[in-house]
Design a protein that fits this description.
Belongs to the protein kinase superfamily. STE Ser/Thr protein kinase family. MAP kinase kinase subfamily. By secondary structure, this protein is of the alpha+beta class. The chain contains eleven helices and nine strands. Bound molecules: adenosine-5'-triphosphate and magnesium ion (MG). Adenosine-5'-triphosphate binds next to strand 1, strand 2, strand 3, strand 5 and helix 2.
């Protein structure tokens, strides 16, 4: 186990994100490899609060469908460091960039694992809130796991805040948090509302999964035409009012049914995680579906 941050040797940079860098590191004593996410928090109290919040959530999670967080360190320089399970094959974002499109069989395996991860999180009253390709990571076995709880919230906390504190003083910048999550994968009800959480929050994760699943088959972000300039207003309009779902002609009936249910604009009519796990698109996948097709 990693007891001291100075025992970790930085090897390479795995990626950059919103306010942080992820390194591949070696734990000198055990010779194990980890991913180290370093968030610089000196600049912003919002990020500091958010990261501390992320740490509290991460420490409680233990599932084969969620990227494991082994330890959290706070440095005197004001950084927060998360020691995570190293996911050797990077993210679904990287995988899509190289392979462009994935087969339905592979996508089915991805959908199954993300749904199982969401089932676990939702069971703990946690909304992920930022399901998107760069937050779905792939390990050496080709298994997909959910990562990155930077904008997640515990529903109960939100409820408590709503009940006991209507002046919103201690809500660390609802708008700022909303801007940081990627708008493209946000559900209509989330785009529509300044705050999130409450009963509709869980359904928002399902919407995001629907966007990801369709993107995997279409080969590009699916809610606006390919090559269109990603203008924020156009994006919001497409999410909230766009009627046309660009479904490839080759898409199977099972795929169509699954995606339509995820991308139901009225969250009350949207499929729940439990319901979607029982859809033929998910149950009919072949046992090998999560391996080869993802590997770059
Ligand atoms: P955002 O800041 O909005 O979450 P992001 O997901 O791209 O954007 P990070 O979460 O900081 O940003 O991750 C950056 C990249 O680092 C990821 O896209 C992924 O390629 C890589 N990465 C993150 N965590 C791990 C990990 N545990 N193992 C391997 N690679 C990782
Ligand atoms: Mg991320």
């Amino acid at each position: 186990d990693v007891e001291n941050i100075s025992d970790l040797k930085k090897l390479t940079v795995l990626g950059h994100g919103n306010g942080g860098i992820v390194y591949k590191v070696r734990h000198q004593k055990s010779n194990s490899i980890y991913a180290l996410k370093v968030l610089n928090t000196t600049s912003s109290t919002i990020i500091r609060h958010q990261a501390a919040h992320e740490a509290e959530i991460l420490k409680r999670l233990d599932s084969q469908f969620i990227v494991k967080c082994h330890a959290v360190f706070y440095t005197i320089e004001g950084e927060i460091c998360f020691v995570m399970e190293h996911m050797e094959r990077g993210s679904l974002f990287d995988s899509l960039r190289v392979r462009k499109k994935l087969s339905e069989d592979v996508i089915s395996g991805v959908a199954y694992r993300v749904l199982k991860g969401l089932q676990y999180l939702h069971g703990m009253q946690i909304i992920h809130g930022d399901i998107k390709p760069s937050n779905l990571l792939i390990n050496g076995k080709g298994e997909v796991k959910i990562a990155d709880f930077g904008v997640s919230r515990i529903v109960e906390e939100t409820r408590n805040n709503n009940n006991h504190n209507n002046n919103n003083n201690n809500n660390i910048g609802e708008a700022a948090i909303a801007c940081m999550g990627t708008c493209a994968y946000m559900s209509p009800e989330r785009v529509d509302s300044e705050r999130w959480g409450g009963d509709y929050g869980f359904a928002g994760d399902v919407w995001s999964l629907g966007v990801v699943v369709l993107e995997c088959l279409v080969g590009h972000y699916p809610l606006i035409g390919f090559g269109e300039k990603p203008d924020l207003m156009a994006l919001i309009c497409a999410i909230c009012f766009g009627e046309r779902l660009e479904m490839p002609e080759t898409a199977s009936p099972e795929f169509r049914r699954f995606v339509r249910s995820c991308l139901e604009k009225d969250w009350r009519k949207r499929g729940t995680v439990e319901e979607l796990l029982a859809y033929p698109f998910v149950t009919k996948r072949s046992s090998s579906s999560n391996i080869e097709g993802l590997i770059i």
